[in-house]
Design goal:
The chain is α+β, with helices and mostly antiparallel strands. It is 40% helix and 15% strand. The strands form 2 sheets. Strands 7-6-8-4-3-5-9 form a 7-stranded antiparallel sheet. Strands 1-2 form a two-stranded antiparallel ribbon. The protein contains 11 helices and 9 strands. The protein has one domain. Helix 3 runs antiparallel to helix 9.
Length: 289
């Protein structure tokens, strides 16, 4: 068993123990997904397991365990990573050979950004969650119905699980909201406060249960579960969801599907609106081939 904060190199011929936040094994240079490695450490996993088991115990005491287990099963089997962006950005990814990137890369290429807040704030928050590898992170949300957070963009893309699961970790809520809650508390902000609130992709159902079990009602349907997991009503800062952190970026090959939600926001001019709808239909057709 490695020391606290360290992982064993996945290269079976190496086996060196190194700090989980490093980008590669110092001994053999085997690549690491540091966000996943950090979520997979013993203390964060143990804290999550305790929150998960406590939530199940409360559900059993309240006579609602069957519903909570139904929610858990649905999240484990069906929840996917979704990203919201504008239709023009999606068009650029599909037809312009562009990648979806983050704020840091935007400075260099001037193309796509996930968060509109100031760079200094983004840097501070990322420093807490990701040490010095925040510049390599992309963001998504966990969804049960392939609907996303519309304030970030009217078009929602669903990512292929096989392209991101091995490099994705999850945080119980939006990283800015989580960090702001810590700032309002008097205790010291350090990574120990993340224990129990982050998870690997394989444990996404446990994080969802730990967060939401107490809000599940006996008569909830799958549609209710979907809205409970991700609710984008209100403004950007009002959205409630589980945030996904993906190490590295992606291109059109990682996109499973997309949908466009707010046709009411398309142009009112009939001819312009017709062109926009044609553009959307053309993009959808590319995913159906």
């Amino acid at each position: 068993m490695p020391e606290n904060g360290k992982k064993i190199c996945e290269n079976e011929q190496c086996g060196y123990a190194y700090f989980a936040q490093e980008l590669a094994c110092p001994a053999c240079q085997w690549k690491n997904n540091p966000n996943v490695a950090l979520a997979d450490l013993k203390k964060p996993k143990a804290a999550l397991e305790k929150r998960y088991q406590d939530a199940l115990q409360r559900a059993a005491q309240n006579g609602n365990l069957e519903q909570v287990k139904a929610f858990e099963t649905l999240v484990k089997s069906s929840a996917k990573a979704v990203v919201n962006l504008d239709i023009g950005v999606l068009d650029g990814i599909i037809n312009g050979s562009m990648r979806y990137i983050n704020t840091y890369q935007l400075r260099k290429i001037r193309t796509i950004t996930k968060h509109p807040l100031a760079d200094s704030r983004r840097f501070m928050v990322d420093g807490y969650f990701f040490y010095d590898f925040g510049q390599s992170m992309a963001f998504a949300a966990l969804s049960l119905n392939e609907k996303g957070i519309r304030p970030y963009g009217n078009c929602t893309i669903t990512l292929k699980e096989g392209t991101i699961a091995y490099r994705a970790s999850l945080l119980e809520e939006d990283s800015f909201q989580f960090f702001e809650k810590l700032e309002r508390q008097s205790k010291k902000i350090d990574r120990k406060t993340l224990n129990g609130y982050i998870a690997t992709w394989e444990d996404k159902h446990k994080l969802a249960v730990a967060k939401l079990a107490d809000r599940i009602q006996p008569n909830d349907t799958n549609n209710d579960f979907a809205k409970l997991l991700l609710n984008d009503e209100g403004g950007m800062s009002d959205a409630k969801f589980i945030e996904i952190h993906v190490f590295g970026f992606f291109n059109e090959a990682a996109i499973e599907s997309f949908s466009y939600f707010d046709e009411a926001k398309l142009a009112r001019n009939p001819r312009t609106r017709e062109k926009q709808l044609y553009r959307i239909a053309k993009l959808k057709a590319q995913f159906q081939k």
